[in-house]
Amino acid sequence: MKYIDEFQDPALARRLLDDIARTVTRRWSMMEVCGGQTHSIIRHGIDQLLPGNIELIHGPGCPVCVTPLEVIDKALEIASRPGVVFCSFGDMLRVPGSDRDLFRVKGDGGDVRVVYSPMDALRIARQTPDQEVVFFGVGFETTAPAIAMAAHQAKRLDVRNFSLLVSHVRVPPAIEAIMRSPDCRVQAFLAAGHVCSVMGTLEYPALADTHKVPIVVTGFEPLDILEGIRRAVRQLERGEHRVENAYPRAVRPQGNPVALSVLREVFTTTDRAWRGIGTIPDSGWRLSDAYRDYDAEHRFEITGLATEEPAVCRSGEVLQGLIKPHECAAFGTACTPRTPLGATMVSNEGACAAYYLYRRLTTPRTEETASVD
Amino acid sequence: MPLRDHPVVVMGHGGGGALSAELTRHLFLPAYGGQTLGALTDSAAITLGGARLAFSTDSYVVHPLFFPGGSIGDLAVNGTVNDLAMSGAVPAYLSCAFILEEGTELSTVGRVAQELGAAARAADVTVVTGDTKVVDSGHGDGVYVNTAGIGLIPEGVDIRPQRARPGDVLIVSGPIGQHGIAILSVREGLTFGTEVVSDTAPLAGLVQAMLAVTPEIHVLRDPTRGGLAAALNEIATASGTGVILDERAVPVPEAVATACALLGLDPMYVANEGRLVAFVPRTHADAVLDAMRAHPLGRGAAVIGACVAEHPGMVVARTGLGGTRIVDLPLGEQLPRIC
After folding, report:
1. What is the CA radius of gyration of chain B?
2. CB 3.0-4.6 Å disulfide test: which of A48, A115, A298, B224 passes with A120?
3. Which residues of A touch B331 (CB under 8 A)?
4. Are A197 and A342 in a shared domain?
5. Is the Cβ of B254 closer than 8 Å to some Cβ of chain A?
6. Would you say residue A114 lies in a domain?
């Protein structure tokens, strides 16, 4: 895969690292918003190679991590019903609800299927008209257009046995909430490139202005991330706070007009709860009134849910960049990928899982974290 | 909900990762007992009437039954032959049991049997016993196959995961990830530019070519379910040594890398069916590598790392940029990501 090799070239990476080291004169902390970036940073050891006075803070951008427990519990309840085919992206299957996960529902006989696209779920609905097919629509602006398109197609084709359990979240309100927090330590943002490839960059200048914070739109390969960091450091050192696009091969200021058009037709913005963080105003999407028939929450009456988060889990603070994963007492002990207490330990893109998977050699060890039975 | 406390079987219990290992160690081993089983090698090394035999069994539940580069028939032969070969044995005889789902076309069963027979002839093994069962419609996936095999371990050969030791060089016989991606591409209807073809192949000939250079091969393992990561973790755990991988040296075909990047999978965890990893003393490494490259199934052989005294029981990769990361045992099966 030539283009991936090119974006992982060690010699070019070294040049970027040298440039960053020459530019930086004091301590700076910056947040990579997206869990994909966190994963790439930890997987390639980028944080180990940066000058010690640059701190990367891991942001809330893992869709698996921020989906509220109540929505997970609703998904588990719907997926357990006879006559329901419950379709989901793969990494949602292991996310713990209050007392089980979708794998358990599947093990207990529920018809839970992994699909690669919501359109696959719509296809299943057309092939099995006697079953209620539900797609679990979670994610940021990246996945939302495909899910909106599935709803649009379902309506156009008049597929009556298809619905969506939607819990979409938007990045800009999350950045706003992080900057407004009195404990905020973030001095610059590496914005998520794939979110901006859909939405464009026009939502960001007001944020950069209001909070006097540089925002650099950044990709996911090692060189993309190093270039994003280099530009953020340069702005910080110069006292600037602009929006810069360091991912021009994928991102245009106006975004993707086709995706935006279907998003606006099918979704409307709403206040949304983020797991571990709380409700952020206007930070989510829900199906618009015209698509109410395709809303699984409307179609399936779900009552009697009692959600319960493990008290010891500090994933909310991890998601807000207030602590590092290994600073949580449960990290690597009560909470591991096999026994996750919080969603940040479940998803590959969760900061806790990334630290557990890749960093146990270098994080301070609270106790045995390496046992492999 | 702790996964290890699942009161029912979940798919990850068959994924070749941590959940599979837990099931074996905490449920099967206490029930059966026995030192030979407890060694948890790909095939058991047993002595019978003075002969040192390797004995192994495996079940094949792959879907679809036919895929680019192979079928459940070849897999059922190659998988068991390879398990025997990983103890240095020369595979000789196979058993073959079919579990058929009511309603399956007999022409399909016939084709599987033909391909199984052809694979056995190619691997120079003989099917000497078998069994057939039929289950109700809806209670199977068309055809399941179980094979068991025995082979003779040559004198002076002692190959098992416990023998890895610091100083050993780690060699892989060719590019990784092809089988898993080939299956995924047909199962999910995905295409990745170039068609990815399964690497399914019998490795006993390659192993014999390696042993002809030196009997001093410490460990062999075919990285099937759970991929290279699971195989190396099992060896690190069994031997109590560390493994260091040079990530850029691990051969990953372009189409496999593309597919993995697209789906959020790590090629280190993707299944293989015709590859092996070998731990060889440094003094013999070049000769073994040359012998592998001279064999048709080892042309792409490469040195990808070493066995070290540091971080015992763990596999650590040196990343392309010069950092390090742990390569852990997978939990269950890899799950494609959201975005």
Report:
1. 19
2. A115
3. 94, 337-338
4. no
5. yes
6. yes
